[in-house]
Design brief:
heterodimer, A: 200 residues, mainly alpha, 74% helix, globular, B: 366 residues, alpha/beta, six-stranded parallel β-sheet, 8 helices, 17 strands
Chain lengths: 200, 366
């Protein structure tokens, strides 16, 4: 495999993670914030950016811990606990650094960080990269792509819900009900991207 | 067995290492050092940064009124932050009006002290202190109203103006997992400095009132802070109309005794509304004050006089009674204390009688 095809492979992996294998729309992970924080586009975007950031870095950290600590010691079964601990510590640390560095950024992004610690999409991405046996670069690309996919999905969801705010929705479907229907239709649309990737 | 030990050791080491890293980060990254807080451009305090402005001020013995205990819900702890407050947090936005935002008003429990900061607070807050006291007396005024006498221990004296309120701290008890602060008007006159009295009405399900009615005993230690509030007589010697209902009696009981002590001779009519005769209290005491002050008149009124024996006083809703007694075009100042609904209704009646809004003063229960 030469360098060119490897780069294409990485890009394809990143795109696949964002579109055809979108973590929220195909595996329905990270659904709680997806449904509850998608009423305003700006808030949704804030949370989405935080997810991209945290997912990219925690996937990388988790890969390193898995490859250089758990595998040599044959402790792979401990990955659930270790990944969660790493994610929690990383998020706390980042929160402190952001608060020190820029109060504006902290208020726009930082308040979402504690929320992300318990977001199952973050842990899900780390576990998938283990199952699929990604290399370090692939893992970073996969984490970044998944985060971007989550960001796109929640921003689109917030936009749609904003449009729907003035529409008459049957009483039984209001709130989470209609949000689940929208998520289902969005999932169908995202699967449509798989044709694009086959061309790569 | 060996592999299990290794596994536990490894995970513990990594977790411990990460925890240590966070502790170090907290020490170095989240360390804001000593910050200068300039208050009203004259007084400067030095305090450890990293906590909320409300907590930091409290640690310096400056108490901003706050009912929710710093959780950003009651919006009572507003202060003007002139410099160093940073951008307005999303948690503050719903609690601030556009005018307040333009005037740099902030919710002090949501502002973190990260650097030197300059604030403006009402100067009377400087005299707010935290007091420790002992319950000297609990007296039943009516079936659901108690008078609480508290002797102050530390500091041993309080100075306030008649009409101000204090916040009583209800400690944790079975049914209330954390201390809560509730505001009560002081009913004793300001001349008595070593003790205060409060009039407390039982609110069914109320955290603080349940504590006072069911748990508090003579000799118990209590904590309170204050005094707060602007309610009180103006300096003018204009004729006055007072209107109160229920425990709205408290500030007027303080103001009336203060007037009697100071020999104020302004004309004053006090309308007090209650449901039935068993809800009336302090009537004899106010009759006594009527004898002392020729200009003072006390008019209790019952809205349901049928119950509890013969009643030859005023009857009807307090607003109707006020309407009957106050003449059209009266030039007077009005002082009102009670529930929001009562105050609103009474204001309407007074306005119809020609008393302008700027001459009405309220102490509304929340």
């Amino acid at each position: 495999m030469n360098l060119g095809s490897e780069v294409v492979g990485i890009i394809a992996l990143c795109f696949a993670a964002a579109f055809t294998q979108n973590i929220v729309l195909t595996t329905f992970l990270g659904l709680c914030p997806f449904l509850s924080v998608s009423r305003e586009v700006t808030t949704a975007a804030g949370l989405g950016v935080a997810v991209v950031f945290v997912m990219t870095f925690t996937c990388a950290l988790d890969w390193l811990a898995y490859r250089y600590v758990l595998q040599p010691l044959r402790l792979e079964f401990f990955r659930f606990i270790l990944f969660i601990v790493i994610i929690a510590a990383f998020v706390q640390l980042v929160e402190m650094i952001i608060e020190r560095g820029s109060v504006t950024l902290y208020q726009n992004l930082g308040i979402f960080l504690p929320l992300i610690t318990v977001n199952c999409a973050i842990l899900g991405a780390s576990l998938f990269m283990v199952i699929r046996g990604y290399s370090f670069v692939q893992t970073v690309a996969y984490g970044f792509g998944s985060g971007c996919g989550w960001l796109m999905a929640i921003v689109a969801m917030a936009g749609i819900r904003r449009k729907l705010a003035n529409d008459r929705i049957p009483a039984g479907l209001q709130g989470p009900g209609i949000a689940m229907v929208i998520a289902g239709i969005m999932a169908l649309a995202f699967i449509g991207f798989s044709g694009v990737l086959q061309g790569l | 067995m060996l592999s299990l030990t290794i596994a536990v050791l490894v995970i513990s080491t990594i977790s411990g290492g990460l925890a240590a890293l966070l502790v170090l980060a907290e020490r170095f990254i989240a360390n804001y050092g000593e910050c200068q807080i300039t208050i009203n451009g004259e007084k400067t305090l030095a305090a450890e940064g990293g906590r909320s402005l409300l907590e930091t001020l409290a640690s310096q013995k400056i108490f901003i009124p706050s009912a929710c205990g710093g959780r950003g819900t009651c919006a009572l702890c507003k202060v003007k932050v002139l410099e160093g407050g940073g951008p307005v947090a999303p948690t503050e936005l719903p609690l601030l009006s556009a005018d307040e935002r333009a005037a740099n008003v902030r919710i002090s429990c949501q502002v973190k002290v990260r650097n030197d900061i300059a604030i403006d607070i009402p100067p009377e807050l400087f005299s707010v202190r935290e007091y420790r006291g002992v319950v000297e007396r609990i007296r039943d005024l009516t079936h659901d109203m108690k008078e609480l006498g508290i002797r102050l221990v530390e500091p041993s004296e309080i100075s306030f103006t008649a009409g101000q309120y204090v916040q009583l701290v209800a400690p944790e008890y079975k049914g209330s997992p954390e201390p809560v602060y509730r505001a009560y008007s002081v009913s004793s006159p300001p001349s008595r400095k070593d003790a205060i009295e409060l009039i407390i009405r039982l609110v069914p399900g109320g955290i603080c009132t349940t504590w006072v009615f069911n748990h508090l005993k003579r000799g118990d230690e209590v904590r309170l802070n204050g005094p707060y509030g602007q309610f009180g007589l103006t300096e003018s010697d204009a004729e006055m109309i007072w209107i109160a209902g229920g425990s709205g009696m408290a500030p007027f009981w303080s103001i009336a005794r203060d007037m009697a002590e100071k020999g104020v001779e302004s004309k004053c009519t006090y309308f007090f509304g209650a449901l039935t005769q068993k809800d009336l209290f302090l009537v004899d005491e106010f009759r006594e004050l009527e004898r002392k002050m020729p200009g003072f008149k006390f008019i209790p009124a019952l809205s349901e006089p049928g119950e509890g024996g013969k009643w030859d006083g005023e009857t009807g809703l307090i607003t109707d009674v006020v309407g009957r007694h106050v003449e059209q075009g009266t030039v007077a100042e009005a002082y009102l204390c009670g529930s929001g609904g009562m105050i609103k209704a009474a204001c309407k009646v007074l306005e119809a009688k020609g008393i302008p809004e700027e001459r009405m003063f309220f102490d509304e229960f929340t």
